[in-house]
Amino acid sequence: MYRTSEQQMSIYDYLPPYHGELAERNRWVRLADAIDWDAFEKEYSGHFGHVGKVAVPARVAYGCLIVRAACGVSDRETVALIRESPYLQYFLGFDAFTDTVPFSSRSMERFRTRIPADKVRAAVRLLRRFEAED
């Protein structure tokens, strides 16, 4: 027998599963811990001078490309996924969950020109290994 719900659920009725804390076994949390972000930051920052607009942090740029490749989605969908997911925002190094992100889908093309595809593929392979372990 099927029972209908009594009323439409509101966003305010929903309790997030992470209760303010992220699960340590989450694949994105594990990948964030496995990547040497400091080393990548040094390598990435060496490609830019000190004039012009402030660049998006290396972790954000690299992380966006990893998310895009791992999920097999467009630039626009990558930005939407990041905007919606506290796990992906943690992976990118955000301090707290936010509805706004400091880049647009148009930024993704610049990220691809500056970050080697083989680095992205290596990170995605590591992510797949974490998925296989669960």
Any overview of this molecule?
By secondary structure, this protein is mainly α. The chain has helices at residues 27-34, 37-45, 58-71, 75-84, 86-91, 107-114, 117-133. Helix 1 (27-34) crosses helix 7 and helix 3 packs across helix 4. The N and C termini lie far apart (35 Å).
Q: Can you summarize this structure?
A:
With 134 residues, this protein is mostly helical. The protein has helices at 27-34, 37-45, 58-71, 75-84, 86-91, 107-114, 117-133. The chain is 54% helix and 0% strand.
What characteristic shape results from the CA principal axes? globular
Instruction: Assign a percent range to the helix content.
Output: 40-55%
Strand content: under 5%
Q: How many DSSP H or I helices?
A: 7
The mean pLDDT is 86
- Number of domain modules: 1
The main sheet comes to:
none
Low-confidence stretches: none
Features of this protein?
about 130 residues; mainly alpha
What topology emerges from the helices and strands here?
Elements: H1 27-34, H2 37-45, H3 58-71, H4 75-84, H5 86-91, H6 107-114, H7 117-133
Helix pairs in contact: 1-7, 3-4, 3-7
